[in-house]
Design brief:
With 266 residues, the protein is mainly alpha-helical. The chain is built from ten helices and two strands, in the order ααααααββαααα. The chain has one domain. Helix 8 packs across helix 9.
């Protein structure tokens, strides 16, 4: 394990262990505890995104945007739902992005994704239950771990070298395979339809694109990490970039009825 390819593995595993304990505890508790965690994460992501994309502005503005992001998720998750929540969160992202001096569209689009993801996790936990949020999280973790090891051990052609120079096709495909296996396992255990396997792969792809989207923003802004809050992982956005896309897509699938058709409500 002294191989340089795995030099950051220790810090990554230690941080991951802490995040898993906190995440599982909040996921198990559900209700306001889980909602609080999602709201706090949305605030941290909003702070990181503003700080990363507007580095020359006063620090208090980044904090204000983080607080605003958390407040939007809280308001539209606890006192609204469905299309009303979708419209409110999108409008909130537009308003927060409107007064930025540059990169308004990019900031607004990614902030909207963050808000939808945090809201989606809260709604999915409440409407579908612990098992199905755990399914989402396992897809993210499983595809990430598979991609990490397959990419470093097998190497090969890069998936999108201009945007994410470390991501390989071998790691990407390994992530899809593991996601399919997770979907098959949950389908077998819960009696859900075989379509869950395909949805699991699509969600894994969404997670990988979420990773690439954040990498593109970092490359545009000339930074390595969104912050240094999590040892071995960088910032909150760096660690949860895949989950952002997965949760947002899963909630939109629930909103249009796809999730309900496959797995039904809790």
């Amino acid at each position: 394990m002294s191989d340089a390819r795995f030099g950051d593995l220790g810090a990554r595993l230690a941080s991951a262990a802490v995040m898993i304990v906190v995440g599982i505890g909040a996921l198990w508790a559900g209700g306001y505890v889980f909602a609080a965690l999602a709201i706090v994460l949305a605030g941290l992501m909003g702070w990181e995104l503003f700080r990363m994309m507007q580095p020359d502005t006063p620090v208090n503005l980044a904090v204000a945007h983080g607080v605003a992001a958390a407040a939007l998720v809280a308001i539209f998750s606890l006192w609204a739902s469905g299309v009303v929540a979708l419209a409110g969160l999108l409008a909130g992202a537009v308003v927060l992005a409107w007064r930025l001096p540059r990169d308004r569209a990019l900031f607004g689009a990614y902030l909207a994704l963050v808000l939808l993801a945090a809201h989606g996790l809260i709604v999915l936990r409440g409407d579908f239950g612990l098992v199905w949020v755990l399914w989402l999280i396992l897809i993210v973790i499983g595809s990430d771990v598979a991609g990490y090891f397959a990419g470093r051990m097998l190497g090969g052609p890069k998936f999108w070298p201009r945007v994410s120079p470390k991501k390989t096709w071998s790691g990407t495909l390994a992530g899809w395979v593991v996601a399919a296996l997770i979907g098959a396992g949950f389908a077998q255990a819960t009696g859900a339809g075989a379509g869950l396997v395909l949805l699991s792969v699509l969600l894994a792809l969404a997670g990988q694109m979420g990773d690439i989207a954040e990498s593109a923003i970092k490359r545009r802004m000339g930074v390595k990490d969104s912050s240094q809050l999590i040892p071995g992982h960088g910032g909150v956005l760096d660690r949860f970039d895949a989950l952002i896309a997965v949760a947002a897509l899963a909630w939109l699938a629930a909103l249009i009825g796809v999730m309900g058709m496959l797995i039904g409500p809790a």
